[in-house]
Each structure stands twice: as C-alpha cells, then as structure tokens.
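User: What would this chain look like folded?
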Amino acid sequence: MESNIQKSFQNGPFSDTVSYKSDKGEISLVYPCYVKHGKYEIYDLKGNLFRKSETYSSVEQAEQRIKALLS
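Assistant: Here's the prediction, encoded as structure tokens.
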C-alpha cells in the first residue's frame, strides 16, 4: 500500500476487517467469513468512491482496487 494510505486492523468473531484511509476517503476490506469462506468485500465508508460494495477472489485484487481508489 502507498505510504499516504493508513491501515487499521480489527479482529472479529467470524471475520477480520481492515480499514484504509487517505485524503480521498475511507474503505473497509472485510475478509471472508471463517464459517462460509466467501469472497473479500470492500465497502465505501467515506468519500463516495464507488457504489455499495465490491467483491474479490483474493486480498491482492481487493488491495489493488483500494490503492487505485485512494491514491
């Protein structure tokens, strides 16, 4: 991730969440649920960077999209 993008981690009972923040906005990356083993989901928390949520098969794909949106 770019140095101007701040990351913060939160451990949840069923999945983990990482928040990414820059001057452009804030995005939450939700890891797949430990029970369902789904996809990685990103949510626009602040900045109206995209609509609703997006899903990805890998954390690398999700982080690449986050980097593009917040850089």
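The longest helix spans residues 59-70. If you want, I can go into more detail on any region.
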